[in-house]
């Protein structure tokens, strides 16, 4: 890989990191709101998603 490609990749990662952080934050907030509305506990939600036995 040439230096220009490496710099471009690094620049795109810097730009996207805050976007990814915001996406994860919003997703977590939405999931918590749904759980609250439906009355699910965290353990029940994890089991439903297959993250816990």
TrEMBL record:
<protein>
    <submittedName>
        <fullName>Uncharacterized protein</fullName>
    </submittedName>
</protein>
